[in-house]
C-alpha cells in the first residue's frame, strides 16, 4: 500500500469508527423516543427493552452474528455458516499478528463493529409495538432469537451476496439475467430498507396481532407522558442516522456526503409532509407528529440514500411522511395495538422507500431516464420487499408462538393496570409515583427483606387501576 492509499484507508477507518459510534447512539436515542411516547408507569420498561436488546444482540453478534451475515460459506444464499467465524475467530488478526483488511481497505474489525450496531437497532425497533404488556425476560430471549433467525439471514441475503443481492445467483439475476457476473438489474438497499425497517415493521405487526391489545386500548386515552423526551429522542436518532446512512458508503468520500445530504433532505420533507397531513386531517400540527415525521423520513431514505439526488430525496421523503402519517391510523381501523406506531412508521415508510426509489433513482428510475430498465428495477424492488416481509413474518410468527407456549408473553392484568415498571423492574420513573415514605433497605438474607411498597402507596397493596394511561 503506497502513502496515498495509507492516508485514504486511515481516513475511511476514522469515518467508519465514527459512524459505528453514531449508530450505537441510536439505540439509547430510541429508548428516549419510545420511553417518552409511553405512559409514566411503563416508561422505564420501554427504555429497558432497548437497553436489554443492546446487551443481548451485541453478545450474539460477536459469537455468531457476523459469521451468519458475512461468512463465505453460504447455505443456499439464505444464511452463512455460523461456525465459520464463531466468536470472530479468523476475523481480527492473521497468523502474523496483523489486522486483517476488510473489503474497503481498513481493518475488518471496524466493519464488524459497524454492522453490530445495525443488528442492535433493528431488533430494538420492534419493542415499540409491545409497550406496557410483555414480560421483560421473554423480550430478551426473543431479541436474541429474532436477530439470529431473521436479521442475520436477511443481512446475508441482501448485503452478504445471498438471494436478495446483486449476485449472479440472486433472485434479480434469475429474473432479468446476468451481465459481467452480476445481476443485470441490481436490487437497491443502500442502508437497510428491507433488512432493517421492513423486517422490524413486519415483526411488530405479527407480534401485535399475536400478543393482543393492551387492556385499555381504544377504551382510554393513550397519551405520550413526556413529549420533550420524544423530540429529544427523534433529534438524536436524526443525528445518529448520519452514521447509519453516511457510513453505508464505507468510505469518507462523495458517496457519504451525498447520503448525508439526501438524509437531511428527505427527513425535513417528511416532517413537513406529516405536519401538513395532521393540519388538514386533525386541525393542528403536533410535536409528536414532527418527531414521528422525522423518523418516517429517516426510514424512507434509508434504502435510497446513495441513489437519489437531494431534489428527488425531497419528493421521496415528503410522500413517505404523508404515507406514514396515514399508516399510523390503520391500527384504529383494523384494531391491532401497535402501541408506538412501529408498523405505521417503519413498515409503511420502509416499503415506500424501498419501492419508491425505483421511480426516481438517478438515471435509472421510471421517471428519471431508466425506461424499460426502470420498470424492471421497480419489479425487483417490489419482489425483494415482499420476500423480506414474508420471511420476517413467518419466522417471527413461529418464534412468537413458541415463546407464548413456553415462557409466555403477557404480564397479568393487575400488573398491567398498576404499571409494568414496578412489576418487572421494582422501580418507577418518577418520584411522585412512589409513596412519601422511604423504601425500606434490604437487610439480612433474602427471606428477611421487608416488602417494598408499590409506587404511590404506603403499603404493599397495589392501587386501583387508573382510568387512563398517565
Automatic annotation (TrEMBL):
Keywords from UniProt, A to Z, are:
Ammonia transport, Membrane, Transmembrane, Transmembrane helix, Transport
Where do transmembrane segments lie in this chain? Answer: 15-34, 46-66, 112-132, 139-159, 190-212, 224-244, 256-276, 288-305, 311-330, 342-362, 382-403
Subcellular location(s): the record lists: Cell membrane; Membrane
Q: How does it sit in the membrane?
A: Multi-pass membrane protein
Q: According to the UniProt record, where is the region Disordered?
A: 430-470
Q: Which InterPro entries match?
A: Ammonium/urea_transptr, Ammonium_transpt, Ammonium_transpt_CS, NH4_transpt_AmtB-like_dom
* UniProt keyword Cytoplasm present: no
Family label:
Belongs to the ammonia transporter channel (TC 1.A.11.2) family.
Q: Which PANTHER family match?
A: AMMONIUM TRANSPORTER MEP2
User: Which NCBIfam families does the UniProt entry name for this protein?
Assistant: amt (TIGR00836)
- Protein name per Swiss-Prot or TrEMBL: Ammonium transporter
Organism taxonomic ancestry:
Bacteria, Bacillati, Actinomycetota, Actinomycetes, Mycobacteriales
Amino acid at each position: 500500500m503506497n502513502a496515498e492509499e495509507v492516508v485514504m484507508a486511515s481516513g475511511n477507518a476514522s469515518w467508519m469508527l465514527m459512524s459505528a459510534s453514531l449508530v450505537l447512539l441510536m439505540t439509547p436515542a430510541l429508548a428516549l423516543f419510545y420511553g417518552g411516547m409511553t405512559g409514566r408507569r411503563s416508561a422505564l420498561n420501554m427504555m429497558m427493552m432497548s437497553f436489554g436488546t443492546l446487551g443481548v444482540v451485541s453478545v450474539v453478534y460477536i459469537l455468531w452474528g457476523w459469521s451468519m451475515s458475512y461468512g463465505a460459506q453460504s447455505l443456499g444464499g439464505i444464511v452463512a455458516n455460523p461456525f465459520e467465524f464463531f466468536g470472530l475467530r479468523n476475523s481480527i488478526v492473521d497468523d502474523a499478528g496483523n489486522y486483517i483488511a476488510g473489503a474497503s481497505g481498513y481493518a475488518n474489525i471496524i466493519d464488524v463493529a459497524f454492522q453490530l450496531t445495525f443488528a442492535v437497532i433493528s431488533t430494538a425497533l420492534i419493542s415499540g409495538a409491545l409497550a406496557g404488556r410483555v414480560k421483560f425476560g421473554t423480550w430478551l430471549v426473543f431479541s436474541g432469537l429474532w436477530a439470529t433467525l431473521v436479521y442475520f439471514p436477511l443481512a446475508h441475503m441482501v448485503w452478504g451476496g445471498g438471494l436478495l443481492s446483486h449476485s449472479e445467483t440472486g433472485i434479480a439475476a434469475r429474473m432479468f439475467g446476468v451481465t459481467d457476473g452480476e445481476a443485470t438489474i441490481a436490487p437497491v438497499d443502500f442502508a437497510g430498507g428491507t433488512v432493517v425497517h421492513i423486517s422490524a415493521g413486519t415483526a411488530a405487526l405479527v407480534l401485535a396481532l399475536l400478543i393482543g391489545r393492551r387492556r385499555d386500548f381504544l377504551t382510554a386515552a393513550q397519551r405520550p407522558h413526556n413529549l420533550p423526551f420524544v423530540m429529544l429522542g427523534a433529534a438524536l436518532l436524526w443525528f445518529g442516522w448520519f452514521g447509519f446512512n453516511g457510513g453505508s458508503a464505507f468510505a469518507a468520500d462523495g458517496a457519504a456526503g451525498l447520503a448525508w445530504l439526501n438524509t437531511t433532505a428527505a427527513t425535513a420533507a417528511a416532517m413537513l409532509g406529516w405536519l401538513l397531513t395532521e393540519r388538514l386531517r386533525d386541525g393542528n400540527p403536533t410535536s409528536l407528529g414532527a418527531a414521528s415525521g422525522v423518523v418516517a423520513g429517516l426510514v424512507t431514505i434509508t434504502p435510497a440514500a446513495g441513489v437519489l439526488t437531494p431534489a428527488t430525496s425531497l419528493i421521496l421523503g415528503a410522500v413517505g411522511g404523508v404515507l406514514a402519517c396515514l399508516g399510523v391510523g390503520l391500527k384504529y381501523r383494523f384494531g391491532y395495538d401497535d402501541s408506538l406506531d412501529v408498523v405505521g412508521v417503519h413498515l409503511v415508510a420502509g416499503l415506500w422507500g424501498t419501492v419508491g426509489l425505483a421511480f426516481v433513482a438517478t438515471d435509472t428510475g421510471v421517471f428519471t431516464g431508466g425506461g424499460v430498465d426502470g420498470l424492471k428495477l421497480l419489479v425487483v424492488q417490489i419482489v425483494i420487499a415482499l420476500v423480506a416481509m414474508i420471511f420476517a413474518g413467518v419466522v417471527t410468527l413461529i418464534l412468537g408462538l413458541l415463546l407464548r407456549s413456553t415462557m409466555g408473553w403477557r404480564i397479568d392484568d393487575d400488573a398491567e393496570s398498576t404499571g409494568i415498571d414496578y412489576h418487572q423492574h421494582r422501580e418507577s420513573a418518577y418520584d411522585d409515583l412512589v409513596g412519601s415514605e422511604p423504601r425500606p433497605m434490604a437487610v439480612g438474607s433474602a427471606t428477611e427483606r421487608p416488602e417494598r411498597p408499590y409506587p404511590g402507596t404506603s403499603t404493599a397493596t397495589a392501587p386501583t387501576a387508573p382510568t387512563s394511561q398517565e
